[in-house]
Structures are given as structure tokens and as C-alpha cells.
TrEMBL record:
It is found in: Cell membrane. SUPFAM superfamilies: MetI-like. It comes from Falsiroseomonas selenitidurans. This is ABC transporter permease. The keyword Cell membrane applies.
Length: 291
């Protein structure tokens, strides 16, 4: 008798289906999963304390007990790169949540109401676009102080116009729909029309932007740390590590800045690929254009 072959589990079939429909999303998700595991398992993966200085082992080249070498304080670069993944997620995720919580209700209300609230919001966003985001972030963080909370709040609020614009455009297209007119005719209050009837149909575009905006948050936080106004040493943050490593590139100690720089590039690449894949999956117009 021939043995029956067990059918693959349902979750495996779903993953295979997503991979076929959007390889970009699958690759980006795989990269981020690796970094997420690195961040979660950092206490067990790091061979040394990431902030433990070893004065007798300063700028040791890669190899032996230190696969990525040591920095100018004798700290193990591999341990600091692994620990830096947790800081990257710890900045990107809260910053995106702040942007969503600030931008989505604003775009929802002004897109539905129109008139002067919408006009004021759009002119305010236009004024913000005059100044480069990094200059605004640099000025605000420098004035407020280089703490993790300040960095997250500044990045989140600077990113909120992106979510507000996306939701506003969807609401404008939906507010004349039959189901919205029916909700109004049934006597629903404005808050119920916005959050129960319109929001579930207008949120997809904003959700598709989350991964791309998380990549932006990681880049901006690293840039702030590189310029000396973000997360401060000896915290194992990739931007601060690149800043320290830049001082040693001219003298040949390339590993201090190269390894955290590669980690930063790979994580931003994974987030951008995940964001592009999510937009392809959620936006039927883009999906049709790629066929």
C-alpha cells in the first residue's frame, strides 16, 4: 500500500501564496523577521555586554573572540550591532504609531468636513513642506533634548501629515458614497460615521504606508544620532556607532562604522521592500499595473 502524503499546513500554504503574489513583500518580511528575532534574542545572542568597555582591547580587528572587532572604547561591535536592532524597532514602531494616531483622525475629519478646517490643514502641511524634515527634526530635538521619547515624538509628528493626506484623499472619494449617505440619513452622529463607516474603508492606504514610514523613521533617527543630537553614546544605536566609526575610517579601522552601516542599510531595505509589497497587495490599481 502506498503511504499517503500529508497535506501542508494552512499557514504554509498562505505563506506560499503571498510569496507567489508578491516576492518583494516576502523578501522584505524575511529580512525584518531576522532583525526582529535579533532584537528579541539579543540578551542571548550578544557574546559581550554591548556597553562594556574593555580599555585593553581597543580597536581590535575582526576575528577570534570579536568577529566584528571592537570600537574605540573596546566595546564588541557585533554585540552592539545586535543590540542596535532593538533600538531601531524601539524608535520606528512608536514613531509610526504616533504618526498614525495624530494623522489619521485629522485626515478623517478634515476630508469629511471640507471647508475652512480642510483648507487650514492643507496650508499648514504646505508650510511644513517648505522646510526639510531633517532640519526640523534636528532643530526640535536639539531644543527639547536628545532623549528617546523626544526623538520618537518628533519623528512621529513630522510624519503625521503623510498619513493625514492619504486618509483625507480616501475620505474625499468616499464621502459621497451611498453607504455614507445612508448612514447620515439614519441619523448616525458624525463620530460614528467617521470611525465606524468611513475609517474601515479609508485606512488601507495609510496601513500600506506604515512600513515605508518606519524605514524613514529608522533613517532619520540614525541621522540625528550621527549628527550628535539623537540617541547618545554609549547606547548601542546604529547612527551613533556610524558617527564614531567615521572618525576611524581614515586611519584604517573600517569595521567600527561599516558593520552598523550595513545593518542600517539592510533594515531600511527590508522595510522599503515590505512597504512596496504591501502597497501592491492592498492597492488594486498598482496590482493591475504590475501585471
Amino acid at each position: 500500500m502506498s503511504a499517503t502524503v500529508a497535506a501542508p499546513p494552512r499557514w504554509a500554504l498562505r505563506i506560499a501564496g503571498i510569496t507567489r503574489r508578491s516576492p518583494t513583500l516576502a523578501i522584505g518580511a524575511a529580512i525584518l523577521l531576522g532583525f526582529a528575532l535579533m532584537a528579541i534574542l539579543a540578551p542571548w545572542l550578544t557574546p559581550y555586554d554591548p556597553v562594556l568597555a574593555q580599555p585593553r582591547n581597543v580597536l581590535a580587528p575582526p576575528g577570534g573572540a570579536h568577529p566584528f572587532g571592537t570600537d574605540g572604547n573596546g566595546m564588541d561591535v557585533l554585540s552592539r550591532v545586535i543590540a542596535g536592532a532593538g533600538w531601531a524597532f524601539g524608535i520606528a514602531i512608536p514613531a509610526v504609531l504616533v504618526g498614525l494616531l495624530a494623522g489619521v483622525p485629522l485626515g478623517l475629519y478634515t476630508g469629511y468636513r471640507g471647508g475652512w478646517p480642510d483648507e487650514i490643514m492643507m496650508r499648514g502641511f504646505d508650510a511644513l513642506r517648505v522646510f526639510p524634515s531633517i532640519i526640523l527634526a534636528l532643530a526640535v530635538v536639539a531644543a527639547a533634548g536628545p532623549s528617546l521619547l523626544n526623538v520618537v515624538l518628533v519623528i512621529g509628528f513630522l510624519d503625521s501629515p503623510v498619513f493625514a493626506r492619504v486618509v483625507r484623499a480616501e475620505v474625499i472619494a468616499l464621502r459621497g458614497s451611498t453607504f455614507v449617505e445612508s448612514a447620515v440619513a439614519a441619523g448616525n452622529p458624525t463620530w460614528r460615521i467617521l470611525f465606524v463607516h468611513i475609517l474601515p474603508n479609508a485606512i488601507q492606504g495609510a496601513m500600506a504606508q506604515t512600513a515605508v514610514r518606519a524605514a524613514w523613521a529608522v533613517r532619520i533617527s540614525a541621522t540625528l544620532a550621527f549628527l550628535g543630537v539623537g540617541i547618545q553614546p554609549p547606547t548601542p544605536e546604529w547612527g551613533a556607532m556610524i558617527r564614531q566609526g567615521a572618525e576611524y575610517l581614515v586611519t584604517g579601522q573600517w569595521w567600527v562604522g561599516i558593520f552598523p552601516g550595513l545593518a542600517l542599510i539592510l533594515m531600511v531595505l527590508g522595510l522599503n521592500m515590505l512597504g512596496d509589497g504591501m502597497q501592491d497587495m492592498l492597492d488594486p490599481r498598482r496590482k493591475a499595473a504590475t501585471r
